[in-house]
Design goal:
The structure is a single chain. α2 (54-71) packs parallel to α5. The model is unreliable at 4-32 (pLDDT under 50). The protein folds into 2 domains: 1-35; 45-170, Diaminopimelate Epimerase, Chain A, domain 1. The longest helix has 33 residues, at 2-34. The N and C termini lie far apart (55 Å). Strands 1-2-3-4 form a 4-stranded mixed sheet. It is globular, with a radius of gyration of 19 Å. By secondary structure, it is α/β, with parallel strands linked by helices. It has helices at residues 2-34, 54-71, 89-99, 135-150, 155-170; strands at residues 45-47, 74-79, 109-115, 120-125.
Length: 171
């Protein structure tokens, strides 16, 4: 009888600890985003840094829209000149993807966040997309498919090259 009570107590203890951890993470997330100004999503391509021409943004939007209409996998592109202090670039990408409801249709989504002025790139996936678009895969796409173009100041081709690999991985 003592063993059953002890096991029950341990189960309750671990359950409450897990719940507290989740609540704490949620509170941390809410406090992070409440203290910063996030840009409003304006479409599929959100070029706040003005890295792309209007034509290039339209072409990228067309590619992503065509792909989205065939399978409902969500891809967004954003460029930013700066991010708030005390927030890491990848964390900012996570916050944006959550605030912009990335992957709401079927759970699959990838945000491509670029900052030319900060010399940073992040591919942030939704939870469901992490199965196919692992951290290693995303790092490889940035390093091998996007950065060679970005180093030549060709952000348009870098984004298209990254998109090609992201879409190919879902098929």
């Amino acid at each position: 009888m003592k063993k059953i009570i002890l096991i029950g107590f341990i189960a309750i203890f671990f359950t409450s600890c897990k719940s507290a951890k989740i609540e704490s993470q949620t509170e941390n997330y809410k406090s992070n985003i409440s203290n910063i100004d996030l840009p409003e999503r304006i479409g599929i391509v959100n070029d706040f840094e003005k890295t792309l021409t209007e034509f290039q943004s339209e072409q990228i939007t067309a590619v992503i829209s065509f792909y989205y209409n065939s399978c409902k996998n969500d891809i967004l592109v954003a460029t930013v000149e700066s991010i708030p202090e005390k927030i890491e670039f990848d964390e900012y990408a996570s916050i944006l993807s959550k605030e912009w409801n990335l992957g709401d249709e079927n759970g699959n989504g990838v945000l491509i966040l670029i900052s030319k002025s900060l010399n940073k790139v992040s591919l942030k996936t939704t939870y469901d997309s992490e199965l196919t678009h692992t951290k290693d895969f995303c790092e490889k796409v940035i390093k091998e498919d996007m950065n060679p173009y970005f180093e030549k100041d060709d952000y348009y081709r870098g984004v298209l090259s990254g998109l090609k690999e992201i879409i190919k991985k879902w098929k």
